[in-house]
Amino acid sequence: MIPAHSRRKDKYTPRSVPEEKLATSAMIASLDAEGREAISAPFGHALVDMAKTREDIVGLSADLSKYTDLHVFAEAHPDRFYQMGMAEALLMSAAAGLAREGFVPFATTYAVFAARRAYDFIAMAIAEENLPVKICCALPGLTTGYGPSHQATEDLAIMRGMPNLTVIDPCDAVEIDQATRVIADTPGPVYMRLLRGKVPNVLGEYGYRFELGKAKVIRDGTDVLFISSGFMTMRALDAAVALAADGVSCAVLHSPTIKPLDAETIVAEAQKGGRLVVTAENHSITGGLGEAVAGALMRAGAHVPFRQIALPDEFLDAGALPTLHDQYGLSVSSITARVKNWLEG
Amino acid sequence: METQTGRTGDNVSLPRRAWSIRRHALRMGEVQGQGYIGQALGVADVLAVSYFHAMTYCAHDPEWEGRDRFYLSIGHYAIALYAALIEAGILPEDEIETYGMDDSRMPMSGMAAYTPGMEITGGSLGHGLGIAVGAALGLKRKKNPAFVYNMLSDGELGEGSTWEAVMSAVQWKLDNLIAVVDFNNQQADGPTREALATAPGTEAAKWAAFGWYAQEVDGNDLDAVVAAFDAARNHPDPCPRVIICNTLMCKGVPFLETRDKTHFIRVEADEWAKALAHLDEEMPQ
């Protein structure tokens, strides 16, 4: 018997067409629509810049260079770009082979395909031998309305389980630019989530600098401590502004390195008493930043009030991204409502 | 740098090298009382040709940049490759006694981090050829004329990832890539030909249809294997090369050759010495 939720087609009730149509294919529309400055293809341009002085950098994609911003690199360095075709196992294996021969391969695809389809190849060909392959993947978490085939809601949980692998969930264009340069200089394998296309610049105004393995306080506050990664840091910052108007003071601790987690900073901040700790991630509630933080706090004996903002442990709906972010609790209004509720509770 | 290859000539014959590889493998099997000896005995001739006719390498510097790369996908064939590496002087013979033991450099499944001369970590099947594609691309980038050999098994032809690599190697015109398939028609649950529709005699045609220079040989006929490796190395077209080697599991030890074939041949405790004694009676020149 197929569970009812899988049979959406049986439960359809026609809705009126809204006046302002939301495009399903606007993959980062909601991030773009906040009136912030946006930077185009930060990953691709950073890689091109690095490659000017680094002959060992090569790029590979499994038929998704245009959708991971690697095409910028491919256009600048056609002889250093390898199109591996729609073949993710090969993508990872061949990247491992190039790394064995002394190159630093950047391999790109969508997060779903790297995490779900190519896991064994990342594990055995790359991570087990600690090879410097940089796996950079677009459409992390809920950043597309295409439904579960494209929504990598559990990629961090999967990748956190892999020994030797550094896992990064950058926030914005500034951080993607910086992190791309840092991981090119860092030994060993890396999995990095990408925002692509026009990516907002959020952290620039805070004078932020990405450091591998470091969580940083972006904004201080006395009532709530958000611990966040990825674009949820921009949502947490916006929520902090909104909550301040209601007299709630929120700090935002941005933790882009999911593994190795900066447990020291996280525990120290959480133990500055009197604050509700709220993790915020663009990922399933299972196995991502929130549970990593919870584990770090428990191991340190830091018993603090703790809440998680994350996606539910479900295959998510298709639809327009802003609608889905509201529906699944990643929007600013959803965050502020829950935080107020928790503080009152 | 002193490099080593059968082509530069030494006085030891290929039959003798193959015999020694079988003998080293049997001694390792005796140490553990188990091992994938059927595969090792079957593929010994192909390994002898690889290490004492075809490949260039430097025994005292297994990571020498100019070496031909030998990628063993099939981790459980480690016992066979250790035997070849010992015969080649890359591993010392006295380490045979440590085979499969705690802290040994020769674990039961081949891993790059453990063993000099073991280039990749095998064992999860269907990985080797894809890694070989990347390495072959890397060598071309460096204008390094070395070959990449990937030894894979007939069972690995069932892995989709193998065929991803097959297509890519043609796309990239990897004439520095030589795949060597040990076709012994035996995988874990039974005959390979009863698993994923593969009829005798169709293998080379399958690879050729993808654009490879494909040969199929009796992998226990040393002269035929030598000729196939020479043809693979010297083929003029800009395409990858494959040699399908039909081998007989347990080749060289008649009482094991005729035993019911399984993936993991059972050998009784007293049979290791018997097998070694049989080999010793038939030592080639």
From TrEMBL, chain A:
SMART domains recorded: Transket_pyr
Residues in Transketolase-like pyrimidine-binding domain copies: 37-202
Cited InterPro entries: PDH/Transketolase, THDP-binding, Transketo_C/PFOR_II, Transketolase-like_Pyr-bd, Transketolase_C
Protein family (similarity comment): Belongs to the transketolase family.
PANTHER family: PYRUVATE DEHYDROGENASE E1 COMPONENT, TRANSKETOLASE-LIKE PYRIMIDINE-BINDING DOMAIN-CONTAINING PROTEIN
Species, as recorded: Actibacterium pelagium
Cofactor section: thiamine diphosphate
Alphabetically ordered keywords of this record: Thiamine pyrophosphate
Protein name listed in UniProt: Transketolase
TrEMBL record, chain B:
The UniProt record lists the keyword Oxidoreductase: no
Transmembrane segments: 70-91, 111-139
Taxonomic superkingdom: Bacteria
SUPFAM superfamilies: Thiamin diphosphate-binding fold (THDP-binding)
Cofactor: thiamine diphosphate
Domain (Transketolase N-terminal): residue spans on this chain: 25-274
This protein's name: Transketolase
Lineage, broadest ranks: Bacteria, Pseudomonadati, Pseudomonadota, Alphaproteobacteria, Rhodobacterales
